[in-house]
Amino acid sequence: MIEFLLHAAKAHPEVTLFLSIAVGTLIGRIRIGWFHLGSVAGALLVGLLVGQIGVEVPGILKSVFFALFIYAVGFKSGPEFFGSLNRGTLKLVVLASFLCVVGLATILLMNRLFGFDQGFAAGLGAGALTDTAMLGTASGAINALPLEPAQISILNSHMAVAYAITYLFGTIGMILFVGAAAPRLLKIDLHQSALELEAELAGGEASAQTDQVSLYTRLVVRALRVEEGKPAAGASIGEVESRAAALSIERVLRGAQLLERDLSLVLEPGDVVGVATRRDVVPSLVELFGPEVDEPVAISYPAKTLSAVLTKPEFTGRSLREIRSLVGPVGRHGVFLEKVTRQGLELPLLDGTVFRRGDVVVLSGRPDQVDAIAARVGRTLNVSHVSDLAFHAFGIVAGSLLGVLSAHIGAIPIELGTGGGVLVVALVLGWVHSRYPAVGTFPPPAQWAFSEFGLTAFAAVVGLLAGPKAIHAIQEHGASLVLAGIIVTLVPPLLSLYFGKYVLKLHPMILLGGLAGAQTEAASMNTILEESRSQTPVLGFTVCYAVSNVLLAVWGPIIVALS
């Protein structure tokens, strides 16, 4: 039985590849406390183990799978990357660039101290900085070196081993740094600091219940009976709504008669009104109308929830307070902002929060008003599950061709490689799609599939190709890679912490979010969000994440050239 399995694994590498992906993904899901490897590191480790039997996987698969991954990342990050090139986000761009430059310098220093080759150096950078894109661009540069195939195979094997060894602390170390070490160095309490930033953005006092500071919060509906003597009795719907903030009377039940919304309709004692409002306004409703009652008919009015992408220049770069003023009280009656996300992360709904092009706003309320507001701020998010495959395939072709072009820095040949070229083209196409939605349809689920499968499969191929060479590489440089990995993981964010505090003068919460983004470490970002109990760090994360994704990928060929 064992002989049959070994023969099948060697004779059919596609079976071995998908087995490594499947088992690696399952291992990556195992949690030890708050830590888990993730599917990419899991697939790489399983690939390294299975590769000991000598499976011959076509090397071209690395480029294919990596192209899928890096294209999806670039397409998604394009709007944020180009949107970050403005004065409002300049400090975050500088922070990310500073960390990336320090990271590159630290990698090259470790390479000189420990005598690593190009493979070890590239794997050290990718693992310690938890940026697998660097692994792909460096692999392309290694394959272009004027060396014998056997030597290139060894370098790729060294890269995989170095990544596997340094990735573990790259993830854990960054989580510990931003969650525990950095707050102590800054002498702050994460939650208290978040409350201070929320107060600054809200233009008021800090509150532990941040969803009660903003004009827009989650929508709630209530049925109330109008009582004699209450302010609403004898007043028209328009008059009542003009007195109360963020309140919309959707229906009136008068005896057995159901009256739909009409601003001129005068409320009478005994009427049951269906009210849509903010959660924090609910306590004042009794004083305005009368007691709350259980009347399903009054609150069973048509409603709609949709997501819209912010694209209109009128609203981009403006705060929530400014947008509220632009829309006006009449225009937003009956429409409530449920949440705003940026690159999948939820933003704090505070008056001072600045919206950017590409942010996704979730609106709820009366269908006609929701459609009108969505059209005014941008475009309704495409819910189609159909991707323009021809467009994206041509994009990968264009990126691959761009990657083979080379330039020279002195006597050093530099080229983007397939990964770098595809990333550049994808960034541009993602930005174009954000401005012209009909061009290059690529739904988020499809982006996730491209990215997750492409990267996990790439890692599995890298591990399988490393094969038996991995053992010798670990024996040769295992200890030095562990030490170098710790240094490369911690030195860049440590120096960037003080640079961000004293030179850029960033608020601690935005600074910590920026550090997590600049080191492309989503797990550490989740730690900050949990410890601070606030969404404010997201304001620093997204820009730095987009910038670092580009710079760290570009570093791959540079590390190979300078090592």
Would you mind describing this structure in some detail?
- This protein is α+β, with helices and mostly antiparallel strands and 563 residues long.
- The chain has 22 helices and eleven strands.
- The strands form three sheets. The chain has a five-stranded antiparallel β-sheet, with helices on one face. Strands 1-4-2-3 form a four-stranded antiparallel β-sheet. It has a two-stranded antiparallel ribbon with strand order 10-11.
- Helix 3 packs parallel to helix 18 and helix 6 crosses helix 19.
- The longest helix has 38 residues.
- It is elongated.
Radius of gyration: 27 Å
Based on secondary structure, the structural category is alpha+beta
Global mean pLDDT: 82
* Contiguous uncertain segments of 5+ residues: 205-217
Spatial order of the strands forming the largest sheet: 7-6-8-5-9
Span from first to last CA?
46 Å
Fraction of residues in helices?
55-70%
**Individual helix count:** 22
Shape verdict: elongated
List how many beta strands DSSP finds: 11
Largest sheet: 5 strands, antiparallel
Question: Strand content of the residues, in percent?
Answer: 5-15%
